[in-house]
Amino acid sequence: MAVMVTDHRKLPRRRGEALNAAIHRATLDELAESGYAGLTMERVAERAKTGKASLYRRWPSRLELVAEAVRTVLPTPESVPDTGELRGDLIAMLGQAARALSGPAGEALRGLLGEALSSGSQLGAMRRTSQGMGRKAMEEVVRRAVERGEVDPGVITPRRLDAGHALLRHHFLFDGTPIPDELVVQIVDEVLVPLLTRG
User: Fold this and answer.
1) In this predicted model, what pLDDT tens digit does every residue of 41-82 receive, in sequence order?
2) DSSP assignment, residue 155?
3) Is the Cα torsion angle 38, 172, 182, 148 positive or negative in sign?
4) CA-to-CA separations, 90 to 57, 61, 76, 95, 115, in angstroms, rounded
5) Fewest Cβ atoms nearer than 10 Å: which of 79, 106, 135, 162?
6) Residue (of 129, 136, 94) closest to 113 by Cα position
7) What is the DSSP letter of 39?
8) How far apart are CA 113 and CA 74, in angstroms?
9) Measured between alpha carbons, how far is 163 from 169 in angstroms, rounded to an integer?
10) From start to end of the chain, where are the E strands?
11) CA distance 187 to 179
Protein backbone atom coordinates (compact mmCIF):
# COMPACT_ATOMS: atom_id res chain seq x y z
CA MET A 1 0.00 0.00 0.00
CA ALA A 2 1.47 3.39 -1.01
CA VAL A 3 2.13 5.94 1.73
CA MET A 4 0.84 9.41 0.91
CA VAL A 5 3.22 12.25 1.68
CA THR A 6 1.47 15.53 2.44
CA ASP A 7 3.09 18.72 1.19
CA HIS A 8 3.10 20.96 4.27
CA ARG A 9 2.94 24.04 2.00
CA LYS A 10 -0.61 23.06 0.98
CA LEU A 11 -1.87 22.73 4.57
CA PRO A 12 -3.53 25.59 6.48
CA ARG A 13 -0.81 27.87 7.81
CA ARG A 14 -0.14 27.61 11.56
CA ARG A 15 1.56 30.35 13.51
CA GLY A 16 2.67 31.18 17.01
CA GLU A 17 1.74 28.80 19.78
CA ALA A 18 -0.10 26.35 17.52
CA LEU A 19 3.01 25.86 15.38
CA ASN A 20 5.32 25.73 18.41
CA ALA A 21 3.13 23.09 20.05
CA ALA A 22 3.16 20.96 16.88
CA ILE A 23 6.96 21.22 16.69
CA HIS A 24 7.38 20.37 20.38
CA ARG A 25 5.12 17.33 20.01
CA ALA A 26 6.99 16.20 16.90
CA THR A 27 10.31 16.60 18.73
CA LEU A 28 9.13 14.48 21.67
CA ASP A 29 7.74 11.82 19.31
CA GLU A 30 11.06 11.71 17.44
CA LEU A 31 12.92 11.36 20.73
CA ALA A 32 10.70 8.46 21.76
CA GLU A 33 11.09 6.76 18.38
CA SER A 34 14.69 7.49 17.38
CA GLY A 35 16.45 8.73 20.51
CA TYR A 36 18.51 11.88 20.67
CA ALA A 37 21.23 10.51 18.40
CA GLY A 38 18.72 9.79 15.62
CA LEU A 39 16.79 13.04 15.91
CA THR A 40 17.29 15.52 13.06
CA MET A 41 15.74 18.89 12.35
CA GLU A 42 14.57 17.51 9.00
CA ARG A 43 12.63 14.65 10.59
CA VAL A 44 11.08 16.93 13.20
CA ALA A 45 9.97 19.35 10.47
CA GLU A 46 8.49 16.51 8.43
CA ARG A 47 6.64 15.09 11.44
CA ALA A 48 5.34 18.55 12.41
CA LYS A 49 4.29 19.16 8.79
CA THR A 50 6.27 22.38 8.51
CA GLY A 51 9.41 23.58 6.80
CA LYS A 52 12.91 23.37 8.25
CA ALA A 53 13.15 27.15 8.05
CA SER A 54 10.37 27.38 10.68
CA LEU A 55 12.52 25.37 13.05
CA TYR A 56 15.79 27.18 12.40
CA ARG A 57 14.13 30.60 12.83
CA ARG A 58 13.10 29.61 16.36
CA TRP A 59 15.91 27.28 17.42
CA PRO A 60 19.39 27.69 15.91
CA SER A 61 20.44 24.20 17.01
CA ARG A 62 19.03 20.76 17.73
CA LEU A 63 20.15 21.13 21.35
CA GLU A 64 18.04 24.27 21.88
CA LEU A 65 15.00 22.73 20.15
CA VAL A 66 15.14 19.55 22.23
CA ALA A 67 15.78 21.42 25.50
CA GLU A 68 12.71 23.60 24.95
CA ALA A 69 10.48 20.72 23.85
CA VAL A 70 11.46 18.70 26.91
CA ARG A 71 10.80 21.65 29.19
CA THR A 72 7.16 21.60 28.04
CA VAL A 73 6.62 18.17 29.65
CA LEU A 74 8.68 18.62 32.81
CA PRO A 75 6.92 19.28 36.10
CA THR A 76 6.65 22.98 36.92
CA PRO A 77 6.84 24.46 40.42
CA GLU A 78 3.09 25.10 40.25
CA SER A 79 2.36 21.45 39.40
CA VAL A 80 3.88 20.03 42.60
CA PRO A 81 1.00 18.68 44.70
CA ASP A 82 0.44 20.32 48.08
CA THR A 83 0.07 17.36 50.44
CA GLY A 84 0.03 19.56 53.54
CA GLU A 85 3.42 18.41 54.84
CA LEU A 86 7.08 18.72 53.85
CA ARG A 87 7.77 14.98 53.48
CA GLY A 88 4.72 14.38 51.30
CA ASP A 89 5.50 17.36 49.09
CA LEU A 90 9.12 16.22 48.64
CA ILE A 91 8.05 12.68 47.68
CA ALA A 92 5.48 14.05 45.23
CA MET A 93 7.98 16.48 43.66
CA LEU A 94 10.84 13.98 43.28
CA GLY A 95 8.38 11.32 42.09
CA GLN A 96 7.29 13.63 39.26
CA ALA A 97 10.93 14.27 38.33
CA ALA A 98 11.75 10.54 38.42
CA ARG A 99 8.83 9.74 36.10
CA ALA A 100 9.89 12.51 33.70
CA LEU A 101 13.42 11.08 33.53
CA SER A 102 11.95 7.70 32.54
CA GLY A 103 10.35 9.15 29.37
CA PRO A 104 11.48 11.30 26.43
CA ALA A 105 12.89 13.88 28.84
CA GLY A 106 15.40 11.35 30.14
CA GLU A 107 16.42 10.26 26.64
CA ALA A 108 16.90 13.90 25.73
CA LEU A 109 18.92 14.67 28.85
CA ARG A 110 21.45 11.95 28.08
CA GLY A 111 21.89 13.22 24.54
CA LEU A 112 21.95 16.87 25.54
CA LEU A 113 24.63 16.26 28.15
CA GLY A 114 26.80 14.33 25.73
CA GLU A 115 26.53 17.04 23.09
CA ALA A 116 26.89 19.94 25.51
CA LEU A 117 29.93 18.55 27.30
CA SER A 118 31.81 18.25 24.02
CA SER A 119 31.38 21.96 23.26
CA GLY A 120 31.72 24.93 25.58
CA SER A 121 29.28 27.01 23.54
CA GLN A 122 26.68 24.20 23.56
CA LEU A 123 27.12 23.80 27.31
CA GLY A 124 26.33 27.49 27.73
CA ALA A 125 23.22 27.10 25.55
CA MET A 126 22.05 24.15 27.65
CA ARG A 127 22.50 26.11 30.87
CA ARG A 128 20.53 29.02 29.43
CA THR A 129 17.62 26.83 28.33
CA SER A 130 17.40 24.61 31.43
CA GLN A 131 16.19 27.50 33.64
CA GLY A 132 16.68 25.58 36.89
CA MET A 133 13.22 23.99 36.97
CA GLY A 134 14.21 21.51 39.69
CA ARG A 135 15.51 24.28 41.93
CA LYS A 136 12.33 26.31 41.41
CA ALA A 137 10.13 23.33 42.31
CA MET A 138 12.21 22.75 45.44
CA GLU A 139 11.94 26.42 46.38
CA GLU A 140 8.14 26.16 46.14
CA VAL A 141 8.04 23.06 48.36
CA VAL A 142 10.32 24.71 50.95
CA ARG A 143 8.34 27.97 50.82
CA ARG A 144 5.20 26.06 51.78
CA ALA A 145 7.06 24.25 54.57
CA VAL A 146 8.39 27.55 55.96
CA GLU A 147 4.84 28.95 55.99
CA ARG A 148 3.64 25.85 57.90
CA GLY A 149 6.50 26.20 60.41
CA GLU A 150 8.17 22.93 59.39
CA VAL A 151 11.40 24.54 58.14
CA ASP A 152 13.49 27.36 59.59
CA PRO A 153 14.30 29.73 56.69
CA GLY A 154 17.79 30.17 58.15
CA VAL A 155 18.80 26.62 57.15
CA ILE A 156 17.93 27.01 53.47
CA THR A 157 20.99 27.09 51.21
CA PRO A 158 21.43 26.51 47.47
CA ARG A 159 23.21 23.18 48.09
CA ARG A 160 20.39 21.91 50.29
CA LEU A 161 17.87 22.90 47.64
CA ASP A 162 19.84 21.08 44.93
CA ALA A 163 20.59 17.86 46.86
CA GLY A 164 17.45 15.86 45.98
CA HIS A 165 17.53 16.47 42.25
CA ALA A 166 21.29 15.92 42.19
CA LEU A 167 20.86 12.46 43.73
CA LEU A 168 18.08 11.63 41.24
CA ARG A 169 20.26 12.70 38.30
CA HIS A 170 23.18 10.65 39.65
CA HIS A 171 21.03 7.52 39.79
CA PHE A 172 19.59 8.27 36.34
CA LEU A 173 23.03 8.71 34.74
CA PHE A 174 24.78 5.77 36.39
CA ASP A 175 21.99 3.27 37.12
CA GLY A 176 19.43 4.14 34.45
CA THR A 177 15.67 4.10 34.56
CA PRO A 178 13.11 3.53 35.81
CA ILE A 179 14.01 5.24 39.08
CA PRO A 180 12.43 3.15 41.85
CA ASP A 181 9.85 4.75 44.14
CA GLU A 182 11.83 3.37 47.08
CA LEU A 183 14.83 5.47 46.04
CA VAL A 184 12.71 8.61 46.02
CA VAL A 185 11.51 7.84 49.55
CA GLN A 186 15.08 7.10 50.71
CA ILE A 187 16.36 10.42 49.31
CA VAL A 188 13.57 12.24 51.11
CA ASP A 189 13.84 10.41 54.45
CA GLU A 190 17.62 10.00 54.66
CA VAL A 191 18.79 13.24 53.06
CA LEU A 192 16.25 15.99 52.43
CA VAL A 193 14.10 15.94 55.56
CA PRO A 194 17.17 15.85 57.86
CA LEU A 195 18.92 18.59 55.84
CA LEU A 196 15.92 20.88 55.98
CA THR A 197 14.62 20.24 59.48
CA ARG A 198 17.69 19.67 61.64
CA GLY A 199 19.65 22.73 60.62
Assistant:
1) 999 999 999 999 999 999 998 988 998 898 888 888 888 899
2) G
3) negative
4) 39, 35, 14, 8, 31
5) 79
6) 129
7) -
8) 17
9) 10
10) none
11) 12
